[in-house]
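Q: I'm writing up a methods section and want to include an example of the input and output format. Could you take the sequence below and give the corresponding predicted structure tokens, formatted cleanly so I can copy it straight into the document?
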Amino acid sequence: MEIENVAQYLKNNGIKPSYQRVRVFEYLINNKNHPTVDTVFKELVGEIPTLSKTTVYNTLKLFAKKNIIIVINIEDNETRYDADTSVHGHFKCEKCRKVYDFDVDLSKVDLKKISNFIINEYHFYLKGICEKCRE
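A: Here is the clean output for your methods example:
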């Protein structure tokens, strides 16, 4: 995902582009690590000493509400964030705790049994042991 002007992108999505919001979004698009609020805070507080975890949380909540990021809840006690809003799944390694993206082909998902349902959101999560941790 490449965005030339993050401030303008935020404006185009109805978000006032404060310095903190711009830096949080830049962190998400430049680091494909599916971070938690704590991760984003720890990475940016050195650069932005006035940053608080509450600001990071509220910023990510706003981004999710405006559909410019997705919220990943693979486990009940951990929320992560992803700036890639395209259709894809997530695999979480139970050993190193890293989250990996994988492609999902919706044309191969059989939804006939719920064809009359309205689907508002979908999530594809897998958990196991990644290739590196298996070695």
